[in-house]
Amino acid sequence: MSTDRTVPALDVAGVSHSFGRRRALYDCSFTVPVGGVTALIGRNGAGKSTLLRAASGLLRPDGGEVRVLGEPVGDRSLPRIGYVAQQAPLYPMLTVAQTLALGRRLNPRWDAGYAQHLTDDAALPSTARVGTLAPGHRSRLALVMALAKRPELLLLDEPLASLDPVARTEVIGTLMADVAERGTTVLLSSHVVADIDGVCDHVVVLAEGRACLVGEVEPVLAGHLVAVGAGFEISTLDGAEVIEVRTAGRDAIALVRSAGPVPAGDLAWHRPTLEELLLGYLRAAGPELKREVSAA
Ligand SMILES: Nc1ncnc2c1ncn2[C@@H]1O[C@H](COP(=O)(O)OP(=O)(O)OP(=O)(O)O)[C@@H](O)[C@H]1O
């Protein structure tokens, strides 16, 4: 099936969801374009897993709409989605080979050659029972199951969390190759900013169940500046939209939204790195904190 590149891979429109009195998503809206890697970043409890479950069809949100590849999430979209949940749920009593055989039986688009290639790459022993695999190997197997389905949209909840540094590099390489060769769209969640630097071309930052920053990495970076100076100098940032102010030793450091040239004056300015930018948004997460910062 060829993917229509004119519609978003994922369109989240005004989605809200609560678990009892606990609000996980609140009027959350953003789109993920077709092709490439989008990082879904947020602190613990920001709503990342809830959002991915809604996109995968496992959770029906209380409000709003989620469309995948132009269609409401449902029977027609499900074969086009690969989803790996945070704990990489698999059947512990099955062997690796039996797990792959099950994948083949359940998925009409299953690519057995690719599954075997990925399994070999991850050095997964085919006779080992899933329950005996190390957590990192289990997540590699879960990823094989999702990729061999040949999805157009791959939803990965913290896919790198349990991996050692070598496995992490291998998984990132596999994902990027899939994106380059097949035009797959990958949406992966993480709260480890360093993990996604150099991997994603788009970012979505979730804070308290809402998207507070959405965009392509380069333009988003070009739309922000970091100012470093004494606290009283930072307090004169008239007119700039201040995302976050923090102190570091004798200096104050401000992240501001500004696409203009680096201003002249006493402050030292630079464009943020992706890590500086995302950490700034994560630290500022929450409207109350933002109000305090703006008033500083
Ligand atoms: N099944 C559930 N029952 C009750 N509350 C839930 C449930 N799932 C999530 N929540 C709550 O909803 C909010 C969002 O949780 P979610 O797991 O989506 O966040 P997250 O960004 O994925 O967090 P983490 O990075 O810690 O995995 C949290 O306050 C969480 O406690």
Please tell me about this protein's structure:
- Helix content is 32%, strand content 30%.
- It is an alpha/beta fold and 296 residues long.
- The chain folds into 2 domains: 10-208, Rossmann fold, CATH 3.40.50; 219-285, no CATH class.
- Strands 6-7-8-3-9-10 form a 6-stranded mixed beta sheet, sandwiched between helices. The chain has a 4-stranded antiparallel beta sheet with strand order 2-1-4-5, covered by helices on one side. The protein has a 4-stranded antiparallel beta sheet with strand order 12-13-11-14.
- 42% of the residues are buried.
- Mean pLDDT is 88; it is low at 287-296.
- The protein binds adenosine-5'-triphosphate (ATP).
Shape: elongated
Tally of domains:
2
Order of helices and strands: EEEHEEEHHHEHEHEEHEHEEEHH
CATH topology category name of the largest domain = Rossmann fold
Poorly predicted runs are: 287-296
CATH homologous superfamily caption of the largest domain: P-loop containing nucleotide triphosphate hydrolases
Q: What share of residues is helical?
A: 25-40%
User: Quick check: average pLDDT?
Assistant: 88
Strand count, sense and barrel status of the largest sheet are: 6 strands, mixed
What structural category do the secondary elements indicate? alpha/beta
CATH architecture of the largest domain: 3-Layer(aba) Sandwich
**Count the strands?**
14
Whole-angstrom Rg: 21 Å
Distinct compounds present: adenosine-5'-triphosphate
Compute the number of helices. 10
CATH class of the largest domain: Alpha Beta
Protein name: ABC-2 type transport system ATP-binding protein
GO molecular function, one term: ATP binding
Pfam family, one: ABC_tran
Keywords: ATP-binding, Nucleotide-binding, Transport
